[in-house]
Design brief:
The protein is of the alpha/beta class and about 270 residues long. About 45% of the residues lie in helices and about 15% in strands. The chain is built from 10 helices and 7 strands. It has helices at about 30-35, 40-50, 55-65, 70-80, 90-100, 110-120, 165-175, 210-220, 230-240, 245-269; strands spanning about 15, 105-110, 130-140, 150-155, 185-190, 205-210, 225. The protein has a 7-stranded mixed sheet, sandwiched between helices. Helix 8 (about 210-220) links the parallel strand 6 (about 205-210) and strand 7 (about 225). Helix 2 (about 40-50) packs antiparallel against helix 3 (about 55-65). The longest helix is centred in the last third of the chain and has 22 residues, at about 245-269. The radius of gyration is 19 Å and the shape is globular.
Protein backbone atom coordinates (compact mmCIF):
# COMPACT_ATOMS: atom_id res chain seq x y z
CA UNK A 1 0.00 0.00 0.00
CA UNK A 2 1.32 3.47 -0.80
CA UNK A 3 1.68 6.30 1.72
CA UNK A 4 -0.34 7.10 3.78
CA UNK A 5 -2.26 3.79 3.72
CA UNK A 6 0.92 2.02 4.87
CA UNK A 7 0.48 3.68 8.27
CA UNK A 8 -3.09 2.54 8.87
CA UNK A 9 -2.04 -0.53 10.88
CA UNK A 10 0.48 1.50 12.93
CA UNK A 11 3.58 -0.52 11.97
CA UNK A 12 6.53 -0.45 14.34
CA UNK A 13 8.95 -0.89 11.42
CA UNK A 14 8.73 0.01 7.74
CA UNK A 15 11.26 -1.80 5.58
CA UNK A 16 12.29 -0.18 2.30
CA UNK A 17 14.53 -2.22 0.03
CA UNK A 18 16.25 -2.21 -3.29
CA UNK A 19 15.46 -5.21 -5.50
CA UNK A 20 18.25 -6.10 -7.92
CA UNK A 21 21.32 -7.57 -6.26
CA UNK A 22 19.69 -7.06 -2.85
CA UNK A 23 16.64 -9.31 -2.87
CA UNK A 24 18.08 -11.23 -5.82
CA UNK A 25 21.57 -12.70 -6.00
CA UNK A 26 22.19 -11.14 -9.41
CA UNK A 27 21.05 -7.80 -10.76
CA UNK A 28 18.48 -8.45 -13.50
CA UNK A 29 19.40 -5.25 -15.34
CA UNK A 30 23.09 -6.18 -15.23
CA UNK A 31 22.20 -9.64 -16.54
CA UNK A 32 20.27 -8.16 -19.45
CA UNK A 33 23.11 -5.77 -20.27
CA UNK A 34 25.91 -8.32 -19.92
CA UNK A 35 24.17 -11.07 -21.88
CA UNK A 36 21.88 -9.27 -24.32
CA UNK A 37 23.30 -5.74 -24.43
CA UNK A 38 26.70 -4.03 -24.74
CA UNK A 39 28.42 -6.21 -22.13
CA UNK A 40 29.94 -6.14 -18.66
CA UNK A 41 32.94 -3.91 -19.39
CA UNK A 42 30.92 -0.92 -20.56
CA UNK A 43 28.35 -1.47 -17.80
CA UNK A 44 30.99 -1.46 -15.07
CA UNK A 45 32.55 1.67 -16.50
CA UNK A 46 29.15 3.34 -16.31
CA UNK A 47 28.87 2.38 -12.63
CA UNK A 48 32.33 3.80 -11.89
CA UNK A 49 31.52 7.01 -13.75
CA UNK A 50 28.28 7.34 -11.76
CA UNK A 51 30.08 6.88 -8.43
CA UNK A 52 32.58 9.55 -9.47
CA UNK A 53 29.84 11.98 -10.59
CA UNK A 54 30.95 11.92 -14.23
CA UNK A 55 27.51 10.79 -15.43
CA UNK A 56 24.07 10.56 -13.85
CA UNK A 57 22.65 7.17 -12.97
CA UNK A 58 19.72 8.04 -15.22
CA UNK A 59 21.93 8.44 -18.30
CA UNK A 60 24.03 5.40 -17.48
CA UNK A 61 20.98 3.18 -16.99
CA UNK A 62 19.30 4.49 -20.14
CA UNK A 63 22.38 3.54 -22.17
CA UNK A 64 22.39 0.07 -20.59
CA UNK A 65 18.78 -0.66 -21.44
CA UNK A 66 18.97 0.89 -24.91
CA UNK A 67 21.70 -1.63 -25.72
CA UNK A 68 19.21 -4.48 -25.13
CA UNK A 69 17.23 -5.17 -28.33
CA UNK A 70 15.52 -8.43 -27.27
CA UNK A 71 11.68 -8.33 -27.20
CA UNK A 72 10.48 -7.52 -23.69
CA UNK A 73 8.48 -10.75 -23.07
CA UNK A 74 11.63 -12.73 -23.94
CA UNK A 75 13.63 -10.61 -21.49
CA UNK A 76 11.21 -11.53 -18.68
CA UNK A 77 11.30 -15.22 -19.62
CA UNK A 78 15.11 -15.31 -19.70
CA UNK A 79 15.37 -13.50 -16.38
CA UNK A 80 12.97 -15.95 -14.72
CA UNK A 81 15.26 -18.74 -15.95
CA UNK A 82 18.50 -17.09 -14.77
CA UNK A 83 17.86 -14.91 -11.71
CA UNK A 84 17.79 -16.42 -8.21
CA UNK A 85 16.41 -15.12 -4.94
CA UNK A 86 18.53 -14.55 -1.87
CA UNK A 87 17.90 -17.86 -0.05
CA UNK A 88 16.67 -16.10 3.10
CA UNK A 89 14.46 -13.37 1.64
CA UNK A 90 11.39 -15.59 1.62
CA UNK A 91 11.85 -16.25 5.36
CA UNK A 92 12.17 -12.52 5.95
CA UNK A 93 9.04 -11.76 3.94
CA UNK A 94 6.99 -14.41 5.74
CA UNK A 95 8.15 -12.99 9.08
CA UNK A 96 7.31 -9.45 7.97
CA UNK A 97 3.76 -10.45 7.04
CA UNK A 98 3.21 -12.10 10.43
CA UNK A 99 4.59 -9.08 12.28
CA UNK A 100 2.88 -6.40 10.17
CA UNK A 101 6.15 -4.97 8.87
CA UNK A 102 5.44 -3.41 5.45
CA UNK A 103 8.04 -4.24 2.79
CA UNK A 104 8.31 -1.59 0.08
CA UNK A 105 10.53 -2.23 -2.94
CA UNK A 106 12.18 0.95 -4.24
CA UNK A 107 13.90 0.10 -7.49
CA UNK A 108 15.58 1.78 -10.41
CA UNK A 109 14.62 -1.26 -12.44
CA UNK A 110 11.30 -1.89 -14.17
CA UNK A 111 8.05 -2.79 -12.44
CA UNK A 112 6.94 -5.56 -14.87
CA UNK A 113 10.26 -7.38 -14.45
CA UNK A 114 10.31 -6.99 -10.66
CA UNK A 115 6.72 -8.16 -10.24
CA UNK A 116 7.26 -11.15 -12.52
CA UNK A 117 10.42 -12.21 -10.69
CA UNK A 118 8.91 -11.75 -7.21
CA UNK A 119 5.84 -13.84 -8.02
CA UNK A 120 7.99 -16.44 -9.79
CA UNK A 121 10.52 -16.70 -6.96
CA UNK A 122 8.47 -15.97 -3.82
CA UNK A 123 4.94 -17.00 -4.82
CA UNK A 124 1.57 -15.29 -5.33
CA UNK A 125 1.76 -13.62 -1.91
CA UNK A 126 4.44 -11.37 -3.42
CA UNK A 127 1.65 -9.55 -5.22
CA UNK A 128 1.09 -7.77 -1.89
CA UNK A 129 4.55 -6.15 -1.98
CA UNK A 130 4.40 -2.48 -2.94
CA UNK A 131 6.77 -1.67 -5.82
CA UNK A 132 7.86 1.86 -6.68
CA UNK A 133 9.95 1.72 -9.82
CA UNK A 134 10.39 2.74 -13.44
CA UNK A 135 8.02 1.47 -16.09
CA UNK A 136 8.39 0.20 -19.67
CA UNK A 137 6.73 1.61 -22.77
CA UNK A 138 6.54 0.88 -26.49
CA UNK A 139 9.01 2.69 -28.71
CA UNK A 140 7.33 4.94 -31.30
CA UNK A 141 5.86 2.82 -34.08
CA UNK A 142 6.71 -0.46 -32.34
CA UNK A 143 5.48 -2.73 -29.57
CA UNK A 144 7.28 -4.34 -26.64
CA UNK A 145 7.01 -7.81 -28.16
CA UNK A 146 9.12 -6.73 -31.16
CA UNK A 147 12.90 -6.56 -31.57
CA UNK A 148 14.10 -3.18 -30.23
CA UNK A 149 10.46 -2.37 -29.47
CA UNK A 150 10.61 -1.13 -25.85
CA UNK A 151 12.21 1.59 -23.78
CA UNK A 152 12.41 2.84 -20.21
CA UNK A 153 9.79 5.18 -18.84
CA UNK A 154 11.47 6.84 -15.87
CA UNK A 155 9.61 7.34 -12.60
CA UNK A 156 10.58 11.01 -12.27
CA UNK A 157 12.76 13.75 -13.78
CA UNK A 158 15.67 13.37 -11.37
CA UNK A 159 19.21 12.44 -12.29
CA UNK A 160 18.47 9.02 -10.80
CA UNK A 161 15.48 8.36 -13.06
CA UNK A 162 13.85 7.21 -9.85
CA UNK A 163 14.85 9.27 -6.82
CA UNK A 164 14.12 6.78 -4.04
CA UNK A 165 14.30 9.46 -1.38
CA UNK A 166 11.06 10.98 -2.73
CA UNK A 167 9.14 7.87 -1.60
CA UNK A 168 10.73 7.78 1.86
CA UNK A 169 10.54 11.48 2.77
CA UNK A 170 6.73 11.74 3.09
CA UNK A 171 6.92 9.29 6.02
CA UNK A 172 9.53 11.41 7.81
CA UNK A 173 7.53 14.59 7.14
CA UNK A 174 4.34 12.93 8.38
CA UNK A 175 5.80 12.25 11.82
CA UNK A 176 7.72 15.52 12.00
CA UNK A 177 4.34 17.23 11.71
CA UNK A 178 2.80 14.87 14.32
CA UNK A 179 5.38 14.63 17.13
CA UNK A 180 2.89 12.96 19.50
CA UNK A 181 2.24 9.99 17.20
CA UNK A 182 4.35 6.82 17.63
CA UNK A 183 6.93 6.86 14.84
CA UNK A 184 7.93 3.59 13.16
CA UNK A 185 11.58 2.75 12.67
CA UNK A 186 12.49 3.06 8.99
CA UNK A 187 15.04 0.65 7.53
CA UNK A 188 16.58 0.35 4.06
CA UNK A 189 18.59 -2.38 2.35
CA UNK A 190 20.60 -1.84 -0.83
CA UNK A 191 23.78 -2.64 -2.69
CA UNK A 192 24.70 -0.22 -5.46
CA UNK A 193 24.73 3.13 -7.21
CA UNK A 194 20.94 3.16 -7.65
CA UNK A 195 20.64 3.38 -3.84
CA UNK A 196 22.65 6.57 -3.39
CA UNK A 197 19.52 8.74 -3.27
CA UNK A 198 18.09 6.68 -0.40
CA UNK A 199 21.28 6.23 1.61
CA UNK A 200 20.65 9.12 4.04
CA UNK A 201 16.88 8.84 4.39
CA UNK A 202 16.16 6.07 6.92
CA UNK A 203 17.11 5.28 10.51
CA UNK A 204 19.40 2.42 9.51
CA UNK A 205 20.95 1.40 6.21
CA UNK A 206 21.87 -2.19 5.40
CA UNK A 207 24.58 -2.14 2.71
CA UNK A 208 25.59 -5.34 0.96
CA UNK A 209 29.14 -6.46 1.63
CA UNK A 210 31.66 -5.75 -1.12
CA UNK A 211 29.31 -3.64 -3.25
CA UNK A 212 29.40 -0.05 -4.45
CA UNK A 213 27.03 1.23 -1.75
CA UNK A 214 29.55 0.33 0.98
CA UNK A 215 32.23 2.32 -0.88
CA UNK A 216 29.91 5.33 -1.11
CA UNK A 217 28.87 5.21 2.56
CA UNK A 218 32.47 4.96 3.75
CA UNK A 219 33.50 7.88 1.54
CA UNK A 220 30.56 10.08 2.60
CA UNK A 221 30.55 9.11 6.29
CA UNK A 222 27.02 7.68 6.21
CA UNK A 223 26.24 5.25 9.10
CA UNK A 224 25.49 1.74 7.86
CA UNK A 225 25.70 -1.91 8.73
CA UNK A 226 26.96 -4.55 6.32
CA UNK A 227 24.90 -7.57 5.34
CA UNK A 228 25.76 -10.64 3.31
CA UNK A 229 22.27 -12.11 3.04
CA UNK A 230 18.74 -11.67 4.40
CA UNK A 231 19.40 -14.06 7.28
CA UNK A 232 21.42 -11.35 9.03
CA UNK A 233 18.88 -8.66 8.06
CA UNK A 234 16.09 -10.77 9.58
CA UNK A 235 18.02 -11.34 12.81
CA UNK A 236 18.82 -7.63 13.18
CA UNK A 237 15.29 -6.51 12.33
CA UNK A 238 13.85 -8.98 14.87
CA UNK A 239 16.21 -7.59 17.53
CA UNK A 240 15.13 -4.03 16.75
CA UNK A 241 11.42 -4.92 16.81
CA UNK A 242 11.73 -6.81 20.08
CA UNK A 243 13.86 -4.12 21.70
CA UNK A 244 16.98 -6.27 21.93
CA UNK A 245 19.11 -3.78 20.00
CA UNK A 246 18.96 -0.08 19.31
CA UNK A 247 19.57 1.52 15.93
CA UNK A 248 22.62 3.29 17.39
CA UNK A 249 24.20 0.06 18.66
CA UNK A 250 23.64 -1.71 15.31
CA UNK A 251 25.23 1.22 13.43
CA UNK A 252 28.22 1.27 15.82
CA UNK A 253 28.72 -2.47 15.38
CA UNK A 254 28.49 -2.00 11.62
CA UNK A 255 31.14 0.74 11.65
CA UNK A 256 33.48 -1.41 13.73
CA UNK A 257 32.99 -4.40 11.43
CA UNK A 258 33.62 -2.30 8.32
CA UNK A 259 36.81 -0.89 9.87
CA UNK A 260 38.05 -4.39 10.73
CA UNK A 261 37.41 -5.54 7.15
CA UNK A 262 39.33 -2.55 5.75
CA UNK A 263 42.27 -3.35 8.02
CA UNK A 264 42.18 -7.02 6.99
CA UNK A 265 42.25 -6.01 3.32
CA UNK A 266 45.28 -3.74 3.94
CA UNK A 267 47.05 -6.54 5.86
CA UNK A 268 46.59 -9.07 3.06
CA UNK A 269 47.90 -6.72 0.34
Amino acid sequence: MPYPQTLEENPQIIFFTDFDGTITLKDSNDWLTDNLGFGEKLRRQGNVDTLNDKITFRDSFWEMMESVKTPFPDCIRLLCENISLDPYFKDFYQWSRLNKVPVIVLSSGMTPIIRSLLVHLVGPEANDIEIVSNEVEDKPGKTKDQEDGWQLKFHDDSGFGHDKSLTIRPYAKHFAARPNEPRPTMLYAGDGVSDLSAARETDLLFAKKGRDLVTYCEREGIPFTVFEDWQSILATTKDILEGGKSIKSVAMEGAEKAQEERQNIKTTK
